[in-house]
Amino acid sequence: MSEMFTKLGIDWKLFIAQLINFMILFLVLRAFAWKPLLGALNERRQKISDGIDNAKNADEKLMQIEEEKEKTLTEARSESYKIIEEAKQKANKLKEEKIHATQVEIEQKFDEAKEQIQGERNATYSALKQDIVKLISAATGKLVKDLDDKAHEKLIQDAINDLESAK
Amino acid sequence: MLAISIGPEIITTIAGMPITNTMLMAGVVLLVIIVISLIVKKQATSDAPPRGITGIMDAFVEMFFDFVESITNDKEKAIRFFPIVATIFFVVLCSNLLELLPGLGSIGIWEVHHGEEILVPFIRSMSADLNFTFVVAIFAMGSVQIMGMRFLGFKAYWGKFFIAPWKKPFIIGSFVGILEFVSEFSKAISFSFRLFGNIFAGEVLLAVIGFLAPFLAPLPFLFLELFVGFVQALVFSTLTIVFLNMATTAHDHEEEHEPRADYSKATFGGKPGGITKLNGNGIS
């Protein structure tokens, strides 16, 4: 057995030396190379995927904002239409009301004027009547002296009344 | 005359400790790797983008990590296994490529062995020394045991090998368990002899070709050995990952087995078969 080992060049001292050597290599590489490099690698991959995610998110946000903007714009537009429409309607109503009110007023004024004219005419007429009665009584008084005043006036009044009813 | 020795040649002896040419090379590799590691550590912990040697190591780590993950299909396991297999791959690759250094078998000192004066070269690949390959194999199989115990627990892990004969498959179960236990040792031996055989053969081949036809003729063999060195390092680390993965997967005694990991999709360099996607559900 040991002869085989010697023939193959295996020597316990060399073996242990190589073992120590290799362990040092392993520890050094693990501590100084693999760990920092793996860390850097992971960090980099994380950063890249984060960046891609961020870009995606930003795109989505942008789309959302665009959509919202569009929505708000449409809303505002319809709102403004509504307001204009309402204003138009109100204006129309107001106009009609005004016109109506003016018409009513005009009619009122017209009626008033008519009434006034009527009143005046009536007053004039009655005054005229009075005057006529006096005039006629004076005229007839001169003609018919014996007719007393009372009967006289009554006669005239009747005549006027006849005239009026005949009219 | 060309001297070929299976074991490493002793250059000198210091205080009873033989210093062989492979020890010398191991020391050189150790120094080089420590220097590289320190540079990498300094750069990788800063915010600066990786440059120079750090960039190479960074690319290597990225590819190799995806490779490990494509075999284990589990990020947690991949992170645990990575330092082990990456060290094996890196050190074995370095030592394999040492045999391509000019001066292999030609620069050295003359010594008298068994009454003959022979040239003892300074440069000899560590992988062409069974001491080194055994060390790496034992490291690999040792970490397989440790990782198995860590992932499955002490009892569950050793319960895979030592099955009481009165349990379900009865004597067959315990016999298979013993076989598997023995196979853990044979794995270590096959690891070390595979690597040793390939690299030693390559070294002998290069030495012989260089001895017979020194000009131009060794060129294709140099390329071949470059390839062999890479492949052997890859084979060593891939097998280690597979063994680690097997050791950390719980053995079900029930009939229903989980589908086995699909190693056919494993790729060196990550993407196609690997499970890693940048923005998907892989690394995040």
Could you walk me through the main structural features you see in this protein, from its secondary elements to its overall organization?
The complex is a heterodimer of chains A (about 170) and B (about 280). Chain A has one domain. Helix content of chain A is about 95%, strand content about 0%. Chain A contains three helices and no strands. Chain A is rod-shaped. Chain B is globular. The C terminus of chain B is likely disordered. Chain B is mostly helical. Chain B is built from seven helices and four strands, in the order E-E-H-H-H-E-E-H-H-H-H. Chains A and B meet through helix 2 of A and strand 2, helix 1, helix 2, helix 3 and helix 4 of B.
Largest interface: A-B, 39 and 50 residues
Structural class of chain B: mainly alpha
- What is the beta-strand fraction of chain A? under 5%
Low-confidence runs of chain A: none
Average pLDDT of chain B works out at 79
Please describe the biggest sheet of chain A, giving its number of strands, its sense, and whether it closes into a barrel: none
Question: Mind summarizing the main beta sheet of chain B?
Answer: 2 strands, antiparallel
- The end-to-end span of chain A amounts to 170 Å
How many domains comprise the coordinates of chain A? 1
- Percentage of residues in helical conformation of chain A: over 70%
Unreliable residue stretches of chain B:
253-257, 274-284
Strand/helix succession of chain A: HHH
Query: H/E series of chain B, N to C?
Result: EEHHHEEHHHH
N-C termini distance of chain B: 61 Å
Into which percent range does the helicity of residues of chain B fall? 55-70%
Quaternary status: heterodimer
Q: Which strand-content bin applies to the residues of chain B?
A: 5-15%
DSSP strand count of chain A? 0
Principal-axes shape call of chain B: globular
Main-sheet strand order of chain B equals 1-2
What structural class do helix, strand and pairing data of chain A support?
Answer: mainly alpha
